[in-house]
């Protein structure tokens, strides 16, 4: 097993530190005017986003040639998540499809919704559901069921994505007389991804990753969208852990 880490900040045109406002002794009307002006100026600023990403991945199986992913489509199975987080599955699945397309070389993929459509059309919906449910019980994709699913999809390889945790909180950074000038939103997302060989039932590779994003904001709509956060983490897992196999 191995660990990699990325730390980065992004802000258009410049590097920046977290803003700090210092209270000054001054007449009330002057202080109020300055605070109001600061709020107006801050409202026009591009928010600062601090990213910290970590992934842990297994080495690729010696029997697996990564170039095969560019030659034939790879099916994506339905994203697995705790019951309370299943509402995020669609956004995370879309982010994974985008990350697969951005990989270099790009990985031809069958998105999870198309996987479901193909299997449902062939009368395999119940078996597909049982395959995923069985994974929840044993941590394995049952070999015979996986073989039938792979044959029906026409795909040798399948990706199984999962959501382990999603948490976010809003923290007040500066407040006076009930006026919140700056807030910080901290988002933590934990994902995992596995690559399976359908003819043999072998788990060829897996990666688990965590990303924490801190955004200093004035309005909630300025936060980083969940799918953008997920796409960056998926892309790191695919590019560096799977395709490049960095140690």
Could you list the spans in which at least 5 consecutive residues all have pLDDT below 50?
1-46
Helix and strand sequence: EHEHEHEHHHEEEH
CATH class: Alpha Beta
Q: Reading side by side through the largest sheet, how are the strands ordered?
A: 1-2-7-6-5-3-4
**Tertiary shape:** globular
List keywords for this structure.
247 residues, alpha/beta, disordered N terminus, 7-stranded mixed beta sheet, Rossmann fold, 32% strand, globular
Q: What is the fold's blueprint, element by element?
A:
Blueprint: E1 2-10, H1 28-43, E2 48-57, H2 68-71, E3 74-76, H3 89-102, E4 109-110, H4 112-121, H5 125-138, H6 143-153, E5 157-176, E6 179-197, E7 202-217, H7 226-243
Parallel strand pairs: 3-4, 3-5
Antiparallel strand pairs: 1-2, 2-7, 5-6, 6-7
Structure description:
With 247 residues, the chain is α/β, with parallel strands linked by helices. The protein has a single domain (8-243), classed as ABC-type transport auxiliary lipoprotein component (Rossmann fold, 3-Layer(aba) Sandwich). The protein has 7 helices and 7 strands. It has helices spanning 28-43, 68-71, 89-102, 112-121, 125-138, 143-153, 226-243; strands spanning 2-10, 48-57, 74-76, 109-110, 157-176, 179-197, 202-217. A 7-stranded mixed sheet has the order 1-2-7-6-5-3-4, sandwiched between helices. The protein is globular. It starts with a strand and ends with a helix.
């Amino acid at each position: 097993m191995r660990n990699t880490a990325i730390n980065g900040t992004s802000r258009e045109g410049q590097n920046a530190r977290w803003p700090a406002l210092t209270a000054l002794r001054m007449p009330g009307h002057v202080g109020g005017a300055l605070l109001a002006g600061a709020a107006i100026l801050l409202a026009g600023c591009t928010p600062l986003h601090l990213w910290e990403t970590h992934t842990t991945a297994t080495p690729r199986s010696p029997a697996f040639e990564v170039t095969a992913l560019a030659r034939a489509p790879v099916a994506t199975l339905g994203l697995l998540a705790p019951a309370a987080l299943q509402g995020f599955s669609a956004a995370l699945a879309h982010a994974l499809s985008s990350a697969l397309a951005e990989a270099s070389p790009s990985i031809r993929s069958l998105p999870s919704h198309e996987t479901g459509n193909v299997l449902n059309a062939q009368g395999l919906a119940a078996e597909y559901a049982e395959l995923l449910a069985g994974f929840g019980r044993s941590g394995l994709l049952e070999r015979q069921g996986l073989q039938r699913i792979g044959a029906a999809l026409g795909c040798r390889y399948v990706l199984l994505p999962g959501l382990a945790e999603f948490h976010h909180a809003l923290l007040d950074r500066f407040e006076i007389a009930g006026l919140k000038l700056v807030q910080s939103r901290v988002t933590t997302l934990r994902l995992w991804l596995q690559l399976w060989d359908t003819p043999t039932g072998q788990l060829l590779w897996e990666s688990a990753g965590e990303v924490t994003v801190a955004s200093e904001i004035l309005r909630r709509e300025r936060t980083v969208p969940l799918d953008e956060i997920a796409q960056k983490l998926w892309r790191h897992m695919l590019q560096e852990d799977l395709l490049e196999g960095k140690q």
